[in-house]
Amino acid sequence: MKHLTLIIHTNAQQGLADQLRDIEEVSGFTFCHVEGHGMEVESDPFLSAKDKVVGYTPRVRVDILLDDANVDVVLTLLRESENGIAGQGYYWVTPVELEGHL
User: Fold this and answer.
1) Which domain holds residue 53?
2) Total domains in the fold of the chain
3) Residue 89 confidence class, pLDDT cut points 50, 70, 90
């Protein structure tokens, strides 16, 4: 089992949600609103004037649990996306040692 974490601009949230719902290998996902702080803030084309003054980028963190064999499939589908999310995010994959319901 793997944990795929994506960080995307809030403008891409609805398009990503629509795409994730259509990917058979994705059984569910979680969105959390986060703030991006870093060098890329100055060049982010999605920032409003207010965002530039405040100094952070509104982002969404997406958490997805995937079977090991499905990680590359899902990443390929997201990279080849035609709904406007390709090139707008950052991701990492970490192993999941244990998962279940409480």
Assistant:
1) 2-94
2) 1
3) confident
